[in-house]
Structure formats: C-alpha cells, structure tokens
C-alpha cells in the first residue's frame, strides 16, 4: 500500500526512498514541484513506480511547500529565486545550480575616459540607455540602478513619482536616448516624451520610437556613432567593445560605488543568478544523492554517468534542462544567504520615494502574506510607489472598506457584492479585474415552478423575497430593475424602497449597521431568517454561513421551503449540481428581465433573461485621494509585470499557498481601467452610476421632485422680471 498525500496542483515528482520494514513499513515521499508539465515525460518517468507527476499553477506554491519543510525539490529561475530569498526561512536550501552555456547577463556602465568618478559629475552627460524592452528578463530595478544613484526627486505633490523621475533625468543628463515605452499609460507616455524631449534626442531621427534589436549592445553603438558619453550595457558586449580600435583608451567602467575601472579589470552592477535547485534543509542530502543518481550526464564532474539514458532524457525534460546545461552541486546553503551574496536585495524602507506608499488593505493573514510577496516582487521589478500591507480590523470586507474611508489604507479589491456599500462610504473605482466568461455574476429572479400568481413585476410587491445578502449585487440589481420599470418611485433611499416593496422576508445582513444603508426595516427583512445552529437565536439574520438562507444556495433553500415567494440569485454562485445538472433546478422557473415567465423550468436561459450580468468586482480607493494617479500607474505596472508578462516571477492572479481567491478572484486574467469597452464592466458601472446619480442629488421622494429646485428658480426669475417691468 502506498500513502499519497493530497496536494493541490503542480508538477510534483514523488520520489520513494528505500522502504523500511518494522512493525509497519514507512515510505518517504519527495516531490519535484514545477508549474510546467509534459504529460508524456511524466508517463515515462512513472513507469518505474518511483515518481509521480502533478502540476501547480505558480512556482510560489513550490517555494512555500519547501519552506514548510515538506520534502520537495524545485528549480527556480533567477528572478523567482531573487523574489523568494528575503521571504523564506533558512529551511529553504540551495543544493545546486544549473549552469548554462551562455552566462546570464552581467550589467556594466561604460563612460568616456576623463570622467573623474562619482555620480554628481554625470550632470550634462549624454546617456545611452537600452530602454525597457528586452528578450531576457531584465527588470526596471536593474535598468534604473544608475538612475537612482544619480537623481533626487523634487517631491512635488502635484506630480506622480513617474513624472518626477523623468523630470529629474531630463534635468541631470544632456541629450540622451531611452527608446521604447516609459510608462504603461499611453497618454502619460506620450506626454513625458513631449515634456522631456532631450531624453530622446540621441536616438536619431526616430527619437524614442527607435527599435534596439540587442538593447544592451546597441547602447555601445550609441556611444560611438551618436556621440554618447555614458552607456548601460552588459559585460559580454563590453568585452567585445573594448577589443575594438581605441575604445580601451577612450572609455572605462563606472562602478556601483562611483569608482572607475579600466577595461582590463571590469566591474559589474548586477550579476544575474543561474537557475537554482532548492529543497528543504532536511531533504538536501537525499535530493543531492538523487540528482547524482538520475542526472549523471548533466553533472559538472569527471565521474562516469550511470544514469538510464531514457529515464534521464524525460527527467531532464521535466526539469527544462537543455543539452548544454550542466548541474553544479553545492554544499547546502539557505536560499537567502546564497542570493544575498550575489545580488543586492531591495529593502522596503530604502526604496520609498518622497515618503509615498500605497497601503493595500487586506482581510486575512493569507491575503497579507500574498500582499507581502507582491510588495517584494514590486521592489524587485523597480515599481513605484512602494506597497505596504494593512490588515483590516475585523477581517471582513466592510472593515476593509472602512480602512480606506478612514485613511488607514489606500486601496483594496472588493467583490461586486459591496459596490453599493463602497459608494455609501465615499469610495470610488480605480480599476476593474477582468473576469473569465464562466465566472461572471449572472443575476436572475426565480420562482417555484408551480407559481401561478406572477403576471408582471408589480405582482412581486408585498410578497416575501429570498435574498442572498442585503446590500449585495442581487439586491442592487433588483432595485435597479424595479426603478427602470417604474414599479417603484425614483427615490434615492434604496433601503426604504426595498423595505417598503417586499413582504416579511429574509435578507441576510439587513441587521448590519456597518453597511451604512439607511431606512432599513430590520424586523421585516429578518423575519424569516434562522440559523442552522439550534443554539443560536430563533431569528438569525447575520450574513454568514450559520444563516440557513445566506448566499444564492441559501436563497433557493428559502424559496424551496416557501419562506419566500421569489428569490434573486447569482447563478454563478451556485454549486455545480445546481448550475449544470438539470435535476438540481427543474423545480424553479426564471422570471425574465422583460417581465415574462420562462416557458420552461430550470436555469438554462439566455443572457437576455438575466436582470444583470456583471464582473466579479473592482479595485476601489477613497474619493478625492491625492494618490489616485500614482496608484493607477502602479496598478498598470503590476498588470504588465505580473499578468501580461510571459516571464513573470510572480503570478498575482493565481491561487496562493494552495488557497483560491487571495487578493483577487482566480477568475481574473488581469486588470483593466475606466476606458475599457468590456460590456460586463460597463453593466457594473451603469448599475452603480444609477445609484450614485440618485445619491448625488440627495432627494428621497422620487424623480419628479428633481424639478423642484429648477422650477423654484424659474418662478423667482420670472417674478423679478415682472417687478422690473
């Protein structure tokens, strides 16, 4: 019998150590964890019954497993190792590195001879910069090391940190070249190049639209062909450069400490890491021997290989080893020690510019932990402002919103259930997580299939409703439907509208004062709610799983038990057996958006029948925050670096530590902003705009009363004119 632990996702190669027979035998399992799977290779390496493959969505999962001491092996690329190093304990251990045929990049700065050193004398020099678009994974943190040695920001609160940075670069350097995009905001990118044209003057006739084919090599051509004074390059290109003509006499190296070095004794700024083999400290000896035994032809050793060529080929493929790669085994060393000896790890306090941070509010420890990984990933990528992670007081969404309202935090993701509540707390949208089609909120009104009383929406008045959560997306969509069909007046008091329209009902959360929804008839809206726990009060109205009628499945239970005559639910919130198996929902019939009953039972209706179909939620900030532009620029950067980038070191929108929907829903492929044409985002915006428009005019008696003020002024002006006559 083989014991197989349950793990979520990932390529794990499960290594079985020799079986030890005592009164019972034990089997120790080791896993090779990766986010890349080749099914055929897994099938081959599994043939000897020693290993088993599984797949994780993010390499972060592998690192966290190892740091918990689980017997796991993984291979990290350079930026993954650089990210993990300051975030893990000494348990996470390096025992080998993958040495490629071509050494990873080593950045260097070349400056004309005659330069005396330091960074202040850079003023007025012509800077050849490679730009930010590279085939290799080279981060902004690496590409801007010289920049931050040389410039100081003005800390002008009227400008974003990005604007201040390019203003400072323009003020420091003379005619320069920094090709490609400077900002992920296209409008700002164009404006920066218009405002600071000197940073494009050295690029030639195409300016910053110039395309560098080999950026870190093309900067050296900028030196010699375009008259540059200083260039950021790579050591492998600089070596060739200094071997040509008189370049060794005309140029020299500028070192990170401001000193100078001749071409014969180069200094580098960043030495990129090799890929690393990591495991837990307790597993380091076992895994070292395993690699020796299974990958002998890849070892940097004179010892003849005894590996099986067929097994080795498939195993090497799973490890993504090329024919020219070699494995260099090292004495086990903590990952942090290994990395920090070779690269400078950015620190939070040393990276903050102008005292500006983005305080991200989170609801739980696991969200805070993922936020800290995001913080370090952002530092490593050179993103500004620096992120700080703030845990909400009550570990719930409303507390999260209050954090922002009270100025304790700057932003958070909130799901669509709290869009209306966020507006009541003076919070506004800054970005939308896009949502996979299958994860959109699909909101419908349903009745029991034996319903005969419904003819139109007015028939719903006075009848008990079953609602997943008070103040949520179903509640908001329902009120919006009633308003748009003139079934209720155009009052701004949504709490009052709803309370007066429905009968004695169950709307979980109606008893919560934290929602800030005024004129809520709590007794009426909690009348039919009760707990699944017999020790709780007979009437239990909290919006939590103890409430039998909480969420969309609970609302259907409420309807099924005749505690309500109709329910408003989100089809996407239902379990699989309700959403996709006809037997789960044949006892219900949908009331379509046009006010007609569906001609058949069940939830398999087209989009036109839904009263709304919207995205999962939004990123919100405080209305009027001075940080708005900086925050949005930061969000655009993380969308690029941690969603769109194929070589991302951190997957922001994937599960974290084997937990789904942390910081963002797992259904999120990335972020989009207010100029999006996504119709489901537009649906959500329209839904909230209707409520905000109403809230803004602060009237409580309906649409006709909006004429009161204009009519009063018209009468007043007419009276004055009559008197003048």
| Integer average pLDDT | 89
The main sheet comes to: 6 strands, mixed
Helix and strand composition category: alpha+beta
Round the Cα radius of gyration to an integer and report it: 31 Å
CATH class of the largest domain reads Alpha Beta
- Portion of residues in beta strands equals 15-25%
For the biggest β-sheet, the strand order reads 1-4-5-12-6-13
Q: Separation of termini?
A: 106 Å
Helical content band:
25-40%
Low-confidence stretches: 1-27, 695-725
Q: How many domains would you count in the coordinates?
A: 4
Tell me the number of helical segments per DSSP (H or I, 4 or more residues long). 25
User: In oligomeric terms, what are we looking at?
Assistant: single chain
Query: What is the number of E strands?
Result: 24
Question: What is the CATH superfamily classification of the largest domain?
Answer: Periplasmic binding protein-like II
Inertia-based shape: globular
Tell me the CATH topology of the largest domain: D-Maltodextrin-Binding Protein, domain 2
Examine the secondary-structure arrangement and name the CATH architecture of the largest domain: 3-Layer(aba) Sandwich
Structural notes for this entry:
It is a single chain. The protein has 725 residues and is an alpha+beta fold. The chain folds into four domains: 15-102 and 273-340, D-Maltodextrin-Binding Protein, domain 2, CATH 3.40.190; 107-261, D-Maltodextrin-Binding Protein, domain 2, CATH 3.40.190; 348-437 and 616-676, D-Maltodextrin-Binding Protein, domain 2 (3-Layer(aba) Sandwich); 441-614, D-Maltodextrin-Binding Protein, domain 2, CATH 3.40.190. It has 25 helices and 24 strands. The chain has a six-stranded mixed beta sheet with strand order 1-4-5-12-6-13, sandwiched between helices. Helix 1 packs across helix 12 (309-318) and helix 3 packs across helix 15. The longest helix is centred in the last third of the chain and has 19 residues, at 679-697. The protein is globular and about 95 Å long. Mean pLDDT is 89; it is low at 1-27 and 695-725. Keywords: Signal. Pfam families: Transferrin. This is Transferrin-like domain-containing protein.
